[in-house]
Design goal:
Helix content: 25-40%
Oligomer: single chain
Radius of gyration: 22 Å
Strand order of the largest sheet: 8-7-11-1-12-13-6-14
Number of strands: 14
Strand content: 5-15%
Distance between the termini: 33 Å
Length: 481
């Protein structure tokens, strides 16, 4: 462990959903971006099966949409990102490496003509104002790849355990669901040993709005009466249950925002975005899973960053923002080869990643990272016996580079203020809520996801609601993350 990493007292991780580097941060490689970023300027066109060319293009305002970027609400156009689809996307096609994104999208989704080019689109800074600010102040990692060339849960498992595992069968509950509904219950519940087992419980806390993803990954955290203090909401308080209230004074469990404000962040804080938001006038989630209004994700990141910068813990905090996988969207950088005894020949597609904090150098990092670098960094810094802890983890974690190389020995004093971003987000929020109110004639909102409109969930959200139901059935009390 280098001396700069040794100065870090708090590591905060936020992992968002299903976007590629080129789509979210590739614009930084253009002339008015950041020098040295390997972005859209290096991307080549893709082709469909008939040989029609689809070059990268900047998303633009669309007057038929109810958010600023030209991306559809229709979940049916969410690009495929299963291992089979990813293999086709990153294969050479018409002489272009990483050339199969458009071909795969058209074959899988059969989109209308106007959306055939969707996977090749990228956002510009007006759509990602918070990321643009953070990228110019801190570290852009333009060689951070998802861990495997596949979908959400295997990549999240790699971020927690350095490996994946099969889904756990839920026995009678699963069989009853299948029998009653005639559908297969697809619940993302696994059993892989998470890195948190190598830490003391007092060292970490998991924050979420829904039941924590860690509970789904590792059965160690499905004993719901244990480690209750390790799980908390991101931005709301949770009263103790009635039995506890009867035995002692009423107390409130802290949220991330409470802990940050009080200077009580633990050594490791892991934050899940809100995967399913059922409020009528708010967007349906802030995890950026498409189709989404990505300004909701920008609002979440700003809230988190603002809380950190106001916290007494900020001078010694490292905040890592990354995405689980690319979601089927184009990225021009080939996944590097990997040899670690897994079933994968390469890493996954490149994803957006920003490393943030007063001790983080302002730079563009070309170091190859994947999600297991999160585990390596956390255990190297905070495990009582780092080498012993790392030896308990899979080879991918042991071989991963840690993030200490991105740090300076002293906190920086040249970081700009971010107050102007609050106005941007507040204006978006007001416009978004207004667009989702009922129509002026008393009918449903003109917004497809507004008042009076049916709720349309993505595949991830449907799967996640099955997950929530399964955890409740297994004993997780209502109102506990």
């Amino acid at each position: 462990m280098n001396s700069a990493l040794a100065q870090i007292k708090h590591i905060v991780v936020l992992m968002m959903e299903n976007r590629s580097f080129d789509q979210m941060l590739g614009y930084l490689g253009l002339p008015d971006g950041i020098e040295g970023v390997d972005g859209i300027q290096n991307a080549q066109p893709n082709f469909d099966a008939e040989g029609n060319e689809y070059p990268p293009y900047a998303y633009g305002p669309d007057e038929t949409a109810f958010h600023k970027a030209d991306e559809p609400y229709d979940e049916s156009l969410d690009p495929c990102h299963s291992p089979a689809c990813v293999a086709e996307q990153i294969a050479e096609f018409h002489g272009v490496k990483q050339g199969g994104f458009v071909k795969n999208f058209i074959e899988q989704k059969k989109p209308p003509e106007r959306w055939k080019r969707l996977p090749m689109g990228y956002y510009t800074q007006e759509f990602v104002p918070v990321y643009d600010f953070l990228a110019h102040q801190y570290c852009v990692c333009d060689a951070w790849h998802s861990s495997i060339p596949g979908d959400t849960w295997p990549n999240r498992l790699y971020s927690l355990a350095g490996c994946e595992g099969p889904k756990v069968h839920l026995g009678l509950f699963e069989e009853l669901y299948d029998w009653i509904t005639g559908k297969t219950l697809d619940v993302p519940i696994f059993d892989v040993p998470a890195f948190t087992r190598q830490l003391e419980d007092s060292q970490w806390r998991w924050y979420s709005d829904d039941p924590a993803t860690l509970r789904g990954a590792d059965s160690h955290y499905r004993s719901f009466d244990l480690r209750r203090d390790n799980f908390a909401f991101f931005d709301r308080k949770l009263l103790e249950d009635l039995a506890a209230i009867a035995e002692s004074a009423i107390t409130a469990r802290t949220s991330f925002l409470d802990d940050a404000a009080a200077g009580k962040l633990r050594e490791v804080s892991w934050i899940d975005p809100n995967f399913v938001n059922l409020h009528v006038l708010n967007v349906i989630s802030d995890d950026d899973h498409p189709p989404a209004d990505i300004m909701a994700g920008q609002a979440l990141v700003l809230e988190l960053y603002d809380a950190l910068t106001r916290s007494p813990d900020w001078p010694d905090t490292l905040f890592v923002l990354c995405y689980d996988e690319h979601g089927g969207f184009h990225d021009h950088v080939q996944p590097p080869a990997v040899e670690d005894g897994s079933n994968y020949a390469t890493y996954g597609v490149r994803v957006p990643a920003l490393v943030i904090g007063p001790r983080v150098k302002r730079q563009v990092s070309k170091q190859l990272f994947d999600h297991t670098s999160l585990i390596k960094t956390i255990l190297l810094r905070f495990a009582a016996d780092p080498q012993r802890a790392l030896n308990q983890m899979p080879l991918r974690v042991q071989n991963a580079p840690d993030l200490g190389m991105l740090l300076a020995d002293e906190p920086r004093t040249d970081i700009d203020g971010h107050e102007q971003l609050h106005d941007t987000i507040d204006n978006w929020r007001n416009q978004s809520r207004s667009a989702r109110r009922a129509g002026q004639d008393g009918g449903p909102s003109p917004a497809p996801d507004g008042a009076g409109q049916p709720l349309r969930l993505t595949d991830l959200q449907r799967e996640f609601l099955h997950y929530v139901a399964a955890l409740r059935k297994l004993g997780l009390p209502v109102g506990r993350p």
